[in-house]
Amino acid sequence: MGPVVGQLIDLLAALLLMLAFAMITQRRILSLIHLFTVQGAILAAATAVVGWATHQPHLYFSAGITVVLKVIAIPLLLHRVVNRLNVRWDVETLINVPTTMLIGIALVIFSFNLALPISQLASTIARGTLGIALACVLLSFLMMITRSKAVPQIIGFLSMENGLFFAATAATYGMPMVVELGIALDVLVGILILGVFMFQIREQFDSLDIRHLEKLKED
Amino acid sequence: MDVSALGVVSQLLEVALALLLAPLLSGWVAQCRAWLQNKSGPGLLQPYRALHKLFVKESVVAHHASPLFRAAPYVVFGCTALACAIVPTLSTDLPLAPAADAIALVGLFALARVFVSLAAMDVGTSFGGLGARREMLIGFLAEPALLMVMFSASLISKSTSLTTIVETLAHRDLMIYPSLAFAGVAFTMVSLAENARVPVDNPATHLELTMIHEALILEYSGRHLALIEWAAALKLFAYSCIGIALFFPWGIAQAHAPAAMLLALPALVAKLAAGGAALALLETLSAKMRIFRVPEYLGAAFLLAVIGMLVHILRNA
Amino acid sequence: MSAGSDPSSWLPIDGVLAVVVAWLAIGLAGLPALRRFRVVTTVLFPAGGVAGAVLALIGVAAAFSGPQVAVLPIGLPGLPFHFRLDALSAWFLTVIGAVGAGVSVFASGYFRRGEGTPPGLLCLEYHVFLASMALVVLADDAYAFMVMWETMALSSFLLVTANHRIAEIRRAGYLYLLVAHVGAIGILLCFGVLQANTGDYTFANMRAQSLSPLWASIGFGLAVFGFGAKAGIVPLHVWLPEAHPAAPSPVSALMSAVMLKTAIYGLLRVSFDLLQARLWWWGVVLLGIGLATAIFGVVFAAVQSDMKRLLAYSSIENIGFIVAGIGLALLFSAYGMAALAALALTAAVYHVAAHAFFKSLLFLGTGAVLHATRERSLGRLGGLIRYMPWVAWLSLAGTLASAGLPPFGGFVSEWLLLQSFLFTPGLPSGFLNMLIPVVAALIALVAALAGYTMVKFFGVIFLGQPREEKLAQAHDAGTMERVGMGWLAAGCVALGLAPTVVIRAIDPVTRRLVGAGLGDAVSASGWLLVPVDVERASYGPALFLLGVAASCALAYALVRRLYHGRIRRAPPWDCGFPAQTARMQDTAEGFGQPIRQIFEPFFRMERQLPSPFDARPRYRVVVGDHFWHWLYLPIAAAVERAARLIGLLQRGRIAVYLLYSFVTLVTVLLVVKR
């Protein structure tokens, strides 16, 4: 039973990485939101499996919070934002998609390399997945950097938080409940503020293209 | 390399099965597509009727076509037939298997692709060149991706021989390999591209600007066209069997186990039917993408396969 | 000489030296027949070809005997030439001899009157070139090596500028000579480092030295720079795409097939034989350089519209592949994994031979096309398979081999290299373990792109419809040309179908260099190529070919028997378009357009787009090399600036010159006084 559970966690980790990579290559905002939803679901599943295997019931709560927030609430919010702002068009990227993919591969190699000695020291059941979690974080960061519209940047930020959450679960069996609730609240507030921000940007520049923000600099 | 009588029998059986079942697989996929689109479909045996019709007709060849044009359909057919003979479908006891391992199998498909592209350029029309260029473009991106998928499987089974890979993956204890998950997604993307399916190419299109495979075979007719269509069906069959061998190998008989082969046949048919239905579902759900997006699509498949290999090395480090 | 004049005790090295003397004699015989064209072509060149074939046989025989040494008292007094024939030299001699034979036979049917250099002089330069290459491979001390290297460079320069009346060819030859000498300086400095202050420049002495890692690395770096300049690695490659097209085709064939390999020989000799240290990062550096060169070469080859430039860039790609293989072998050898190092080294050495055969075949094919049509640009060729069938079908063999397709020669080395990548995850360093799959992926990508390029090459030149009216008058190649090309095509096919035999011949080479070899594993399995064990990997090209051929034949026979074989000729269908011209076909630029689009950062493109108001709209794109603008032009500008500053010394007034002498005298006196 032990090794099968370990492989299951590895499989879920691999799916997370695949989704993070797929998000970099996506061009349409609706697909991004769907991918993000699936990522949240997989994250919840992985947390629940780790909780079951290590007999730590508080991880079930974490999984529950993840489902409520990241599979239901935030995607609903994002859909509403997308509908209200009418931003269904193709996503513009600052550097073209193949180059982004190549940089993504380099980041994956880098994070795997970084995680090798650490994972040999750790003693948790999911220690082999630290490199994957780090890669997810870096890939989401890359997505934030290379998109020029606001909504994909928000999704990148949320996806980064997913990666960090998974890293915490993998390495230390989850964070203390207080920290988790605090982070969840921060994320929710952050979303609300970013939503307000987006409306303001839209009103000011008539477009959600963040390159317009450059007009605000001193000259 | 000891060749037993049982081995020869299983080899011949496999080749015959491939040749007979491949048009049926194409027909099944077309039929599933029709059902999903609420149409009544042409019937499962339509590809056989089409092949017979084409063989009966005389072959019309352009005035200035060279012998290469007339020889290419035979070469393509021979290559895909050999590919079907090498991939283990019923059993892993195949005398021809040592002739080509996974890398040579990819090379075999490349050989067929090169000949069909050269034949397309031979007649000197604009569509021939267009089709050749697009086919080589897809090939040059899909071939490394397929090779990397094979390598992922090879790293796990420490061998590039397909029979060994099947034996290792089928007869070990049930293990979930994350690298094979990546390889599976990449393989699906690559086989859609190589077999000229939506979202890369529409096999039923007649609009010139969207053709890839159709543009290559535009000038062929009669028995040459029949051989090429049959070879395309064989290619789809071969790719499906490779997918089954790499990702769902349970049921393939081991060497020296003739009774197990009786089980292997229905298992194969069931898996192919499921795979064909899944293919039809994928085709119906996707839209054909612009030709300029195809390199990105295949590049993503390639990089997914590379990530799969990296994940494998990370886990085993 | 090491043996007396008794013929029964002649060692292979004496045979090699005899062949070299024969080549020099044939060359010198061209001088009295300076303008006697018929003598040169029907007697001298074929004789050179026969000598080449003899050399190949001697090389094969010598591979299995031990190393032999000869000392010739030519050269300066006290500095005789040392020569040594060991397994590595024997392999390269075989390649030089076999390819040289084919090219010489072709050349005897190729050279026409009135092309710049008189034929007798051409014969001399050609045979001196061949002889000097053979002696480079044989040299056992730095002095002999450098003398032969320079002779090789000079004779090839004279051959490249054979049509010296054309300015562009002169320019290409000058660039070639420049880069060759920059490389020669690197090689000379490398030998200086290797002899470690002992003053004895023989290779035997260098082998005995043990250098500190710093000096060994400096020597290695200089060797990579010097030999790399001759081999054409990036960024020292700029002379290749200029010089190879400028030379006459047999010379381009020899340069691309054989001369680049002497640089590979030098690299192998220095890194595996003369340097005793093996540091792992040398292997990584070579691997990186090789990969960069391969990708660069193939991407540029795919967008060329001149057939000889395309082949030149393709040579760059193959050299990159070989260097990557050598790097991998060095890496394994540094970690003590001798068997894997042997696998990678076998792949690289195999590719040396395979590339030599198929590249020379392709260059000779373009030579025949050039003679028949006087066109070099792909935009003005097409449909030649109907008018030049021999050239077309023989070039098809070369094209398929070059694209790395089974069962031809180019596939075996690619297969071996990919196998060595797969056996890797046993390297101690985790980072290197992760790098290896990426490198394998890039090699697969390069191989696939090479296929794309070769389909473009063959398809645009030989298939389709002729793009110009006059192509209908193209004549096929003559007898000698067919024999030469046929010999090389047979070599391509043999290298593809009998890899076990060839690997048994390479076995002594790898045993000498890394201490292990594939010979035993391979001899145990007959016709199948099994590097380790049948369950792990196997490839049987003869069985493969038999399988494909049997399926084709069976299909043909069954269709004819069950149905019929009727054919009707008609105009092409082309979707019913009524008017078709040859201009509606794909151009070479059109075929390369997807590569231009995908790999845009690699190129420096200058585009001239038509506007809607042009009376005669033109579209023009010139694909250039970034290295030329970023590296070579700034260096040239800097050199010019420095020269101008130094030129300030020249005042033209006698008083100033007398002042210089006075200052020098005073300074010397001061120094001496101290």
Explain what you see.
The complex is a heterotrimer of chains A (219), B (317) and C (674). Chain A is an all-alpha fold. Chain A is built from 7 helices and no strands. In chain A, helix 1 packs antiparallel against helix 2 and helix 4 (97-121) runs antiparallel to helix 5. The mean pLDDT of chain A is 79. Chain B is an all-alpha fold and 317 residues long. Helices cover 71% and strands 1% of the residues of chain B. Chain B is built from 11 helices and 1 strand. Chain B has helices at 5-36, 46-56, 67-86, 102-122, 126-157, 162-171, 178-194, 213-216, 222-247, 258-285, 294-316, and one strand at residues 59-62. In chain B, helix 1 crosses helix 9 and helix 7 runs antiparallel to helix 9 (222-247). The mean pLDDT of chain B is 87. Chain C has 674 residues and is mainly alpha-helical. Chain C is 68% helix and 5% strand. Chain C contains 23 helices and 5 strands. Chain C has helices at 12-29, 37-63, 87-110, 119-138, 142-160, 167-194, 203-208, 213-231, 240-246, 249-274, 280-301, 307-334, 338-373, 389-402, 409-422, 430-462, 479-497, 499-514, 519-523, 541-562, 588-598, 626-647, 654-673; strands at residues 68-76, 79-85, 567-570, 603-608, 620-625. In chain C, strand 1 (68-76) and strand 2 form a beta hairpin. The longest helix of chain C is centred in the middle third of the chain and has 36 residues, at 338-373. Chains B and C meet through strand 1, helix 3, helix 4, helix 5 and helix 9 of B and helix 15, helix 16, helix 20, strand 3 and helix 21 of C. Strand 1 (59-62) of chain B pairs parallel with strand 3 (567-570) of chain C.
Helix content of chain A: over 70%
Task: Note the run of SSEs of chain A as H and E.
Answer: HHHHHHH
What percent strand of chain A?
under 5%
Q: How many helices of chain B?
A: 11
What is the oligomeric state here? heterotrimer
Q: What is the string of helix and strand elements of chain B?
A: HHEHHHHHHHHH
Quickly give the structural class of chain A. Answer: mainly alpha
Radius of gyration of chain B: 19 Å
The radius of gyration of chain A is 18 Å
Number of strands of chain B: 1
Percent of sequence in beta strands of chain B: under 5%
Shape of chain A: globular
Parts with pLDDT < 50 across at least 5 consecutive residues of chain B: none
Query: What's the N-to-C terminus distance of chain B?
Result: 34 Å
Q: List the total number of helices of chain A.
A: 7
Q: Which chain pair has the greatest contact?
A: B-C, 82 and 87 residues
Low-confidence stretches of chain A: none
